[in-house]
Each structure stands twice: as structure tokens, then as C-alpha cells.
Design goal:
The complex is a heterodimer. Chain A is α/β, with parallel strands linked by helices. Chain A contains twelve helices and 14 strands. The longest helix of chain A has 18 residues. The chains are: A alpha/beta, B alpha/beta.
Chain lengths: 333, 337
């Protein structure tokens, strides 16, 4: 029986992240947190509440609003014996730290012929529908996934969040950890104490036989909702969460598509040149002779995220879109 | 208080001066090593033996050596695209550097970094950086790390006047001042941001920018190694004792172009200006003249150093030329640790 099956305790996604950080900071003195309003404020989403009380301002460091500067400081600290967790308040600010991540952190190990390493976590978020408009709503995880040397993590449940965060902190490479802002209050079973989840291992969230739904981050929930609707009309959907998109567990995705012969990929990043395009291509290549239909994909609409709720809602993948597309692929529309 | 034995005291004084004497000679040798190394780089490049880009720092040797001689081997530096001098001054071996510049397996980074990315962890060199200003965060982070780990290590961030245009320099200076980090920002003002005089790109007062953050700042003649050395020693001591960051502005000059291919430079600077620096402001000449005047060395002594360095260069170049290229299966090694 797995640790998850044995536990009865339910906590929120936010608490799971907090617990992972606290346990790792107790275990390893070289782990510290740096970012804007991470200490007494515990971030605007309150995910880090209580950490400064336990670990002090020397290990939970409030920075100025200088994302590029303190990310660079994280890189230098990581190269010299520390394990920083760099907190980037909104995933949209990837634009500001991109040189430090893509040109510095990602390449230092390779450029130095393996002599230097950068064991650093960048903790940030993604996801629209908070009515936060175009500069606080984007899902830009694919940008990082394009850079060899980085690892990109997208947890979808509190259990995965805790286990993947611990793995991220212990990893010797720069890891970018994206949390969906809309999931912080979601509850789920999370064991107390130590466990890790390896990178590059997808999780089958629901087994099925007629169609594979691959979802990332909060789109896993969208896929599970769609699977429930589809079950009511006799379509059995398998839901798979890659959990990490770099590295990516290609085999589990391909095997499922071979089994069901149909696949839809759902991700909240933009559809064009996005995560969905990469995964669809991998499945098309690996499962080609077993597919009944083309691999389809659903991503955010290719527009800047609008403010007005009626407009914003149109841009985000929904379970209704997934259901309609699945019905078409299964010849049931 | 015990009586001082005049005999012992005299011996101590002689030993001290002998140590200083050896240190000055060592520093001269280091400067000459950088100059000869880069003359060989120029030769390798122009005879098509060296691939890629090469940015020479000939003319700026006193800054690299004066600063690095003030550091311990476990102190950190970060360097720039014009970084051969910093790397050598911090203790790198010329043979492994030439090998890296030629993309050979025996090079410092197994041939994967090249001229603009040499790192030498054993000597505290966290790497040259091809993004202007790109290493300011790394140096400051190394200083934060030293403070958090409770060591008394110091970090030096080398950058040129061109990096004064990059915002990250000011972001990290602000944080290093707030958190009293043991870091020294060494700005090598060689007067040209690539092909443009720095006065066309840099408003106001340079050290005033650092002072605005309450970072201790000084401006010195970067061609005078004794000045660079004595000033940096003071700043290192200040950083090591927990008294926070400094900014050191060194006025210097590069004799060659922005990179080796930048040969026709008259549209941005005159031959007369170049000659003025080479003839009257050369850091090796200034240092050699002082040593001769102070009878630390004589002309044959200088010739001996030159011949020793020359022969080291010939051996090192040959080592690099003879070294094999990396195995092709190395291409995807070290992407991840």
C-alpha cells in the first residue's frame, strides 16, 4: 500500500508546499528562501506563512523588487554551497529573470565541463481566471522547457506538490516549479513526514480504455471533470498527468495512446508552439500505427489574457471543450 | 612589554622585505604572463588555429593582477568576455587555458566553454561570462553564500564600463549594501563600450552611482599595479571583516580592438590615443621602471623573466595544439548534474 493510500490527513495545496519547504529547511541548513514578501507576509498567497517564525529572516529573506538581481544572487549562492529557493511572485515575471535562468543557471554546469553546478529552485506560478489581466495570468512554463539544463515541474495535487517540491530542492540542477494560483486552496490527502516523487514519471490519475486525456497542472482537474461527464455517456477516458514536462515521461504517454487509440492534450499555456504541440507530436510519432484519429490539443487562446471576466473565460481550456472534442473523436457527437 | 631584540627585529625586517620583493616579482611575472598569453591568442586566432571569438585585455593587466593578488585562493571571482587576464591572475594554468581556447578535451571546461566561459573552480573562479553584467548576481550570491556559511571568503565581480548600462549591477549593489555582503565590484573602465566611447553612453558620475547605495567607492589609476594592489587589499580587508561591499573604478585601456577582428578602429579612436597609452601609460613599463629604480630587479633580471614566460607559453601552446578534441559522445554530457 502506498503512503498516499495509507494516509487519512487532508491538507491544502498551499499547506503541502509550505510543509515540503519547512521539512527540507529542517533537514538541510543550506536551504533558504529569497524573494519579495516571503518573510512576514508569507507571499501574497500566504503559501509561506509561518516559515520566517521558525527559520528567521536570515533563511527567509525579503528582497527588494529586483527579480533579476535576486535570482542572480540565488545562482551564485547555489554555485557556492547553498540550496536557494527563489520565489518569483508571478510566473509572468519569467520575462524579467530570463537571462539569469536561461543564460546563466541552465548553462553553467555544461559550460564549465561539469565542474560547477546550480542546485536552485525557482518557485513560481501560472494560470488565468483570477481576473488579473494580461500581466498576472500567463502560463509561460513552456519557455523554460525549451532550455536544456533546466527542469520544469507542474504539480496538480497537494500530494504531488509536496513530493515534487522535496525532489526539486534535493536536485543538483536548476528547477523551475510552477504552481497554479487557483489550486492553492484545493485539498487532498498528504502524508505527514518525508517522501519524494521522482521527476520524469507520469501519473495515471484515472484509468480508461477509449481515449487518453493528458492534462498538466490545473488542467488535470479539467480532464478529470471531462472524464466524469464522458463516463455518463459510456466513454471511458484515461487521464494522465506528466507531473514534470522537462524531463517528460514519453513512454507512459505513448503507451496510453496505443492502448486507447485516441488522445487529447490539455495545457493552460498558449496552444501555438506550446506544451500541447510537443506532447501531441511525441504521441503522433510513437503511437502512429495505433491511432484511430489525429491527436488533438487544447491550450489557452492565442490572445493576451483579457481582464473582463466574460472574455477571460473564453480563453481558458474548459471541461466542456474537452468533452465536446472527445465525443467527436469517439464518433459520438 | 618585552624588550625588542634589535638583531631579531632586523632579521624580521629583511625577511619581510624579501617576501615583498618576491611578491612584486611574482606580480610582474603574472602581468607578463597575461600579455604573452594574449599575444599568443592573437597569433593563434589570426592563423586560424583558434575558432570563435577572442577579446584581448592587453593593456589592462595591472587591474587583473593587482586585484587577484589581494585575494586568497578560496576567494571568489566572476569574470567577463574579456577574462583571460582575470583567470590567469587567479591562478589558472596557461596550458589548460590554451587547450580550452582551442576547444580541446584537456581544456578547463573540456572544450565546452571556450574563451568566454572559462571557469576554474579550484582557484575560486566562478566563470567568465559572455552576457555583459551577467555575473553581477553570481558574485553577489557567492558573497551571500559566504556570509550564510559563516566563512570569511570575499567575492570580486569584474566588469567593464559597458556593464554600467545594465540594471542588474544596481539591483545587486543595493542588496549587497543592505545586507553588508563581502563583495567588491571592480569596474575596468577601458574607455570603450565595444566601439563607443563610454562618455557617450554613461551619464553623470560613475562612482557616485555606487555611493548612492552607500557602497564604499574609489577611483584609481588602473595602470599602476601598486595602487591597484594597495587599494584592493584595503577593500578586501574591509569585506572580510564584515564591513560590507565596495566599488573600485579602475581607469585602464585595451590596446587591441573590442575583439581580434576589430582592426580598423580609427572611426572610434585615434592612433595617437592608442600610442599615448602604449608608450606612456603601459602598466608593465610603469611597474618595471619602478622596480628598476628601487633596485628590486635589473635589466638582465627582467629579460630572464621574459624568457621564462616565453618558454612557458611555447610549451603551453604546443600542449594545446597536441591535445585531442573531445569525444563526439561528450556533446550531451553535463547538460544535467
Amino acid at each position: 500500500m502506498s503512503m498516499l493510500e495509507m494516509t487519512e490527513r487532508e491538507i491544502t495545496f498551499s499547506q503541502a508546499i509550505n510543509e515540503a519547504l519547512a521539512e527540507e529547511m529542517r533537514r538541510d541548513e543550506s536551504v533558504f528562501i529569497i524573494g519579495e514578501d516571503v518573510a512576514e507576509a508569507g507571499t501574497p498567497f500566504k503559501v509561506l506563512s509561518g516559515l520566517v517564525e521558525e527559520f528567521g529572516t536570515e533563511r527567509v529573506i525579503d528582497s527588494p523588487i529586483s527579480e533579476s538581481g535576486f535570482t542572480g544572487i540565488g545562482v551564485g549562492a547555489a554555485m557556492t554551497g547553498m540550496r536557494p529557493v527563489v520565489d518569483i511572485m508571478f510566473g509572468d515575471f519569467m520575462t524579467i529573470i530570463m537571462d539569469q535562468i536561461a543564460n546563466q543557471a541552465a548553462k553553467i554546469h555544461y559550460m564549465s565541463g561539469g565542474k560547477l553546478k546550480v542546485p536552485m529552485v525557482v518557485r513560481t506560478n501560472l494560470g488565468a481566471s483570477r481576473r488579473s489581466a494580461a500581466q498576472h495570468s500567463q502560463s509561460l512554463h513552456v519557455w523554460l522547457s525549451h532550455i536544456p539544463g533546466l527542469k520544469v515541474i507542474l504539480p496538480s495535487t497537494p500530494y504531488d506538490a509536496k513530493g515534487l517540491m522535496k525532489t526539486a530542492i534535493r536536485d543538483d540542477n536548476p528547477v523551475v516549479f510552477f504552481e497554479d494560483k487557483m489550486m492553492f486552496q484545493d485539498k487532498g490527502k498528504v502524508p505527514e513526514g518525508d517522501y519524494t516523487i521522482p521527476f520524469g514519471v507520469a501519473d495515471i490519475k484515472k484509468e480508461g480504455t477509449d481515449i487518453t486525456l493528458i492534462g498538466t497542472s490545473s488542467m488535470v482537474q479539467v480532464a478529470l471533470e471531462a472524464a466524469d461527464h464522458l463516463a455518463q455517456i459510456g466513454i471511458s477516458a484515461e487521464v494522465i498527468d506528466p507531473r514534470t514536462i522537462l524531463p517528460l515521461d514519453k513512454k507512459t504517454l505513448i503507451d496510453s495512446a496505443i492502448k486507447t487509440s485516441r488522445a487529447i492534450v490539455i495545457d493552460e499555456g498558449y496552444a501555438s508552439y506550446g506544451v500541447t504541440a510537443e506532447i501531441a507530436s511525441i504521441i503522433a510519432d510513437g503511437a502512429f500505427y495505433h491511432l484511430e484519429t489525429p491527436v488533438k490539443r487544447i491550450g489557452a487562446m492565442d490572445v493576451p489574457i483579457p481582464f473582463s471576466p466574460v472574455l477571460e473565460d473564453l480563453t481558458i481550456p474548459s471541461s466542456k471543450m474537452v468533452v465536446n472534442m472527445a465525443k467527436t473523436l469517439c464518433g459520438r457527437s | 612589554m618585552k624588550d625588542i631584540d634589535p638583531k631579531t627585529s632586523q632579521v624580521n625586517s629583511i625577511e619581510k622585505s624579501r617576501t615583498e620583493h618576491e611578491q612584486w616579482l611574482h606580480m610582474y611575472r603574472q602581468m607578463l604572463k597575461i600579455r604573452k598569453f594574449e599575444e599568443n591568442v592573437n597569433q593563434l586566432y589570426t592563423t586560424a588555429k583558434m575558432p570563435g571569438l577572442s577579446h584581448l585585455s592587453i593593456g589592462q593587466e595591472a587591474v587583473a593582477v593587482g586585484v587577484c593578488e589581494s585575494l586568497r585562493s578560496d576567494d571568489y571571482i566572476t569574470s567577463t568576455h574579456r577574462g583571460h587576464g582575470h583567470c590567469l591572475a587567479k591562478g589558472a594554468k596557461t596550458n589548460l587555458m590554451f587547450a580550452e581556447l582551442l576547444g580541446k578535451a584537456s581544456g578547463y571546461c573540456s572544450g565546452k566553454g571556450g574563451s568566454m566561459h572559462i571557469a576554474d573552480q579550484e582557484n575560486g573562479n566562478l566563470g567568465a561570462n559572455a552576457i555583459v553584467g551577467g555575473s553581477a548576481g553570481i558574485a553577489t550570491g557567492a558573497a551571500l553564500s559566504a556570509k550564510m556559511r559563516g566563512t570569511d571568503q570575499v567575492a570580486v565581480c569584474f566588469f567593464g564600463d559597458g556593464a554600467l548600462g545594465q540594471g542588474i549591477i544596481y539591483e545587486v549593489m543595493n542588496m549587497s549594501s543592505l545586507w553588508k555582503l563581502p563583495v567588491i565590484y571592480v569596474c575596468e573602465n577601458n574607455l570603450y563600450t565595444e566601439y563607443t566611447h563610454y562618455t557617450e553612453t554613461t551619464a553623470g558620475n560613475i562612482i557616485g552611482r555606487a555611493k548612492a547605495f552607500h557602497v564604499h567607492a574609489e577611483e584609481i589609476d588602473g595602470q599602476d599595479i601598486r595602487k591597484v594592489f594597495s587599494t584592493t587589499r584595503k577593500l578586501v580587508e574591509k569585506a572580510r571583516s564584515g564591513d560590507g561591499p565596495s566599488f573600485l573604478l579602475c581607469k585602464t585601456y585595451r590596446y587591441y580592438g573590442h575583439h581580434v577582428g576589430d582592426i580598423n578602429r580609427t572611426y572610434y579612436r585615434s592612433k595617437e590615443e592608442e600610442n599615448e597609452w602604449k608608450i606612456n601609460r603601459d602598466p608593465l613599463k610603469i611597474f618595471a621602471n619602478w622596480m628598476i629604480n628601487d633596485q628590486l630587479i635589473d635589466a638582465p633580471g627582467l629579460e630572464q623573466i621574459e624568457s621564462d614566460v616565453q618558454s612557458e607559453m611555447e610549451d603551453s601552446v604546443q600542449f594545446a595544439l597536441d591535445s585531442p578534441y573531445p569525444d563526439l559522445n561528450e556533446v550531451d554530457k553535463h547538460v544535467y548534474a
